[in-house]
Amino acid sequence: MQRENFNDLQAFIVVAREGSFTRAAAQLGVSQSALSHAIRGLETRLDIRLLTRTTRSVSPTEAGQRLLDTIGPRFEEIEAELAILSELKDKAVGNIRITTAEHAANYVLWPKLEKFLPLYPDIKVEINIDYGMTNIVAQRYDAGVRLGDQIEKDMIAVRLSPDMPIAVVASPAYFKKNPKPQTPHDLQEHNCINLRLPTYGSMLVWEFEKAGEKLHVRVEGQVIFNSTSPRLRSVLAGIGLTYLPLDMVEQHVAEGRLVQVLQDWCPVFPGYHLYYPSRRHSSSAFKLLVEALRHR
Questions:
Q1: What is the pTM of this model?
Q2: Helix or strand or coil: residue 187?
Q3: Which mean pLDDT values do the consecutive 10-residue runs of the chain (296 residues) have?
Q4: Upper half-sphere CA count for residue 284 (Cβ side, 13 Å)
Q5: Which residues pair with 273 in a beta bridge?
């Protein structure tokens, strides 16, 4: 049976149950002649008579009754499920999967999610921490969160945060034993705490800019992590210098636990954006979440 013939099967079910082409045509919103043509086409393809027609009534043949008993309940299940989906579209219900980096999860998503989630107890949000450039379509994510300059042009992007300043920091104890770097090149003489990027299989390159001059510095050090929080713990412990978003370290700097260096060289990256495919049919739950996360 070809997929395009499902309409003929539905037409047969309605005619058989109504016992009338007139009532069935009115229910389906088609003409009686179109309905009769559809039934004849179905009988021709199956090479068997499904309905017995008289001047006063229509009733299924033995084969027709067997077909009705077999497929009728399945069509009812399909119609019921479609009705449920239609209702869900207008309700704040559903599961939403988002892939993002650890910093964005902790400093951008969570402060807004902790206010949003209690308001919508039927919305479930799954956050997956991943530093790779995940294909959200292939991996069946509803959305991703990345810096603005990392998002493909065919995606819808919604800004979640202001632009992101970077800071290079170390502890006062570290600088008692080591001179402060005066230029990014000096970092190559320091013990630097770095981040391994899974997508490229290499270390994070520390980017700097001053007066139009851009520098990409590859640093070395005793310890490498593949997430952000351990780098912060290590720099607080006096292991070395590291390169982190300013909002992660500014309170530690203000309270004297860390010292910021190379301020005039540190760049500002585009803020975080939520992105998702332009062809996505958004549920009410997804739309509510997007509005809750949107930067204002």
A1: 0.65
A2: helix
A3: 67 86 85 88 88 83 89 81 62 85 93 92 90 77 84 84 95 96 94 84 87 91 92 96 96 97 94 82 82 90
A4: 11
A5: 146, 159
